[in-house]
Amino acid sequence: MKRTNDVVVGLVVIAIILALSGSLAWVKGSDIGKRQHEVVARFHDVGNARVGNVVVIRGVVGGRIQAIELAPAGWVDVRMKLDPTAQLPPEPVVLLNESSLFGEWQATIVERSALPHDETVTRQIADASTARGVLPGATLPGIGKLTAVAGQIAGDVANVAGRVEVAFDDQAARELRGSIHNVSDLSTTLAKTVKAHASDLDTLSNQLRTAIAAMNRTVVTVQATADRIDSAATSKQVREIVDNLAIASTELRHTSTQVRDLTSRFATSQTRLDSFLANGDSVMMKINRGQGSLGLFVTDPSMYRRSDSLLVQLRALIADIQANPKRYVSVKLF
Prior knowledge:
It is a single chain. This protein is of the alpha/beta class. Among the domains are: 34-142, no CATH class; 205-279; 294-325. Helix content is 64%, strand content 15%. It is built from nine helices and seven strands, in the order H-E-E-E-E-E-E-H-E-H-H-H-H-H-H-H. Strands 1-4-3-2-6-5-7 form a seven-stranded mixed β-barrel. Strand 2 and strand 3 form a beta hairpin. The longest helix has 55 residues, at 235-289. The chain is elongated.
């Protein structure tokens, strides 16, 4: 009887041990009896990820995290066991993120091109891509960080709203209402102006169309004239024009030579004229200073008075000679 009780107790203990082992394996997510393959991802930080968290591929659970280990140079390696039927996407990367609001995390394997547009995530993936034999990984911010950022944003929005409320008082509202009224008046005035000048715009448009039509006719006429000139200009006429141009060029060259000679002669004459003017200027300066007979005559008033008296006496002498010629001239005949 005692032996039977021992056997029963032993079986119960074994059953309890097996139940505990199975429960522990289920909690850790162990897949007993399945053939799995292992992949390793490298991260700067794994956040709150734990062993046993699920690995999601294309939205389906394809394995679990087997181990989290520290690696050299400040890295963290995460070993994952994947089902044999799970196929990795091309250029796979691993993202660690929260899967629920209760703090559960998961590892998501996605294609590199499907990464979120986040500079921090892109930098983490680029840094982890330098290691060989492991998948690059990045950690997305958790709900706590997002909530903190959202709280900070809400605080900033509240501050801005408070400042707007302080700035936008009753006076600002009245000024804004007046501005809106002014804009309405301006719009009405502009509409009246447009209506008043609509006929002028129509007239201007008609004149513009008329001018364009006249320009088109002018272009057609010029084209016809050019065609006529092209048809009239034969090879003989062109040769005659070229010959005339050659003759004109020769004559122009000869004329240019003559003009050059005339210019040199004119330069010589100008030099002589400058010398003559300089000499004349010197003579005039001497006359102004009273040098010489002509200078004394011009500058000395007594010379003028003497000359005037001399002329008077000379007139009197001539008159006396005409009246009494015998007094001055005597003719004796032998």
